[in-house]
Amino acid sequence: MSSEPQLFFTDVNERQALFLRRTVIFGGATLAGVGLLVGRLAQLQLFQTQQYATLSTRNQFNFRMVPPPRGLIKDRHGVTIAGNRPSFRVLVVRDETKDLDQTLDLLGRLLPDTLERRRTIIREVNAAPRFSPVPIKSDLTWEEFSKVNLHAADLPGVMADMNEARYYPYGGAYAHVVGYVAKVSDNDVKAMRERGEEIPSILYNPGYRIGRQGVEKALDEPLRGEAGGNRVEVDVRGRVVAEDTAGSKPAVQGSEVVLTLDNDVQQRALEVFGEEAGSIVVMDVRNGDILAMVSSPSFDPNLFVSGVPTRIYRALADYERRPLTDKALAGTFAPGSTFKPVVGLAAMKRGLDPSRRIVCNGSFYLGRRFACLGRHGALDLRGAIKASCNVYFMTLATEMGPDAIAETSRDMGFGQTFDIGISGQKAGLVPDREWKRRTYSGEQKTWFPGETPSYGIGQGALTVNALQLAVYTSRIANGRKAVKPRLIKSIGGVEQTSSAFEDLPFEPQMLQVLRDGMEAVTAAGGTGFRNSQLGLGTVKMAGKTGTAQARNYGAGSRKGAGRPWAEKDHNLFVAYAPTDNPRYAVSVIVQHGGLGGGTAGAPRAREVMKVALLKDPEMRARIEQAGFEAPEDAGAREAEARGEPIDSPVIDAAAPPPLVEPGQ
């Protein structure tokens, strides 16, 4: 049986009612939606206009902190020794990049060397504050800078600009005393918090640098300046399209720092060392101004500004001559025979007649034999300083004892540090009986008589640094005042004055005796004669040679021939000039020089002293008035006449040994 279709009919009124109900429901819903939309628009337009206008402006404008240019550091004559130079760089702003990995991939195609630092870059970008540009690479070449700008449209959040980077035009000449700048580390921030200091927001800027050593570290705060900021307008992709100059704040450069150093003297002091290790300090004996303070070998501080590669840092740190160590302040050595005038001064303070003669037969006996490098016969104090006689000063030392020597040593500047505005000084050691009691236990607490002879000739536990030797020499040359060193001349145009010098606790005629002896050292027959002649006519230099043992040689030779560098003696020389009216003092330490102070130290002191004297207008006028022409002037004139290049004088590294035994 087949089924047939069936038809159903409904009432027309019923269908109309259903349509009307649906129309009302949908119409009401539509009206409700429109009402809500109108209400929300009214709320946004009438009641929250200011709030969203502010948010819109924040999306449109960014305020980017601008690090200030670091203050300049200059020498006493206005020569810039630490300045700033223009540097092209590329930066990334994390909040303006859609995909950091993709952005770095694109940058890697333009700057391949950034791929090697990818992990470090990602870490620095993620750690940076919001909207802070993070330097990806500095010192771009013009070609690299052009590439980045050419593809800027494809690199949202990436920008290339020109900033000022710290620059040290004289490289290693000031590496230790001026120091260098480097990135701010977590340890820097932690140390500031521990000291209760407020952390400046600029320190969180990834491109900012702070002082790490020397003047840069000690005067970091005045050198920093005040940070500024640029209010820039960005498009939807984060690219800068304009700058709101009215809303920007210019950065204020840091204060200018002027040092007492003389650039010519400082550079010459580093030059004369060549490949040797050691230090030189030059001081004005009248006011304590430091004209030069050099440690050798040095390093190029420019390497540290952008971050020194690990392999280079390790090479510097592992080199046995320690280029990273400031030997002028932190290197302490036995002073050797340069200390003998201190012993003579201590004896005169306790009644010694400087004309008293002591016979030297080549040896001094006190429980054992102490050798003298000669048989000098009968000598007074002046003659003993000239001949550097061990027997004479060992005799005085055993008569006085260690405490008298220690007292005079401290009066002359040893065993202490000086407030020169930078840290890193080591006080060295001036031993006495109290020091032994504090330092040792048991029988070793006692000062044994056999220790005193070595003390009397600047050996034993006694250690000093080059700055102390320069202070000591300045006090001898001054003759009346306890001269103290000064390094910082002015900060921000404000002169940095030091307190008045105290009087030395010695009669002036005692110090005159020492000067007489030191003048004899550099005169004919003296231990420093051969290499201490300035060649400046009537302007002469007085000094004292010294050699400090680096180890016990037993019966072996101390001359160092064939010995490893680290086993050779240290060589020292201290001097002042002119002898008739002292103006400058110099101290030289040649670490493991292997020669006597008269051969290794004296020629270096001579070259540096000549520059200091010839730079002094009064000294130069005196030389010229006497009708004398400085050797370098005459040589330059002859070379110029022959059409040859003019070079500065150099030390003859192959100079023959002195006529006297080295070591005194």
TrEMBL record:
Biased composition of type Basic and acidic residues is found at 634-645
Chain spans, region Disordered:
623-664
Q: Which residues form the Penicillin-binding protein transpeptidase domain?
A: 278-610
Q: Where is the composition biased (Pro residues)?
A: 655-664
| Pfam families named in the record | PBP_dimer (PF03717), Transpeptidase (PF00905)
The UniProt entry, under InterPro entries, shows:
Beta-lactam/transpept, Beta-lactam/transpept-like, PBP_dimer, PBP_dimer_sf, PCN-bd_Tpept, Penicillin-binding_protein_2
Q: What keywords tag this UniProt record? A: Carboxypeptidase, Cell inner membrane, Cell membrane, Cell shape, Cell wall biogenesis/degradation, Hydrolase, Membrane, Peptidoglycan synthesis, Protease, Transmembrane, Transmembrane helix
Q: Where in the cell is it found?
A: Cell membrane; Membrane
Q: Per its record, how is this protein called by name?
A: Penicillin-binding protein 2
Species for this entry: Brevundimonas terrae
Provide the organism lineage as a comma list: Bacteria, Pseudomonadati, Pseudomonadota, Alphaproteobacteria, Caulobacterales
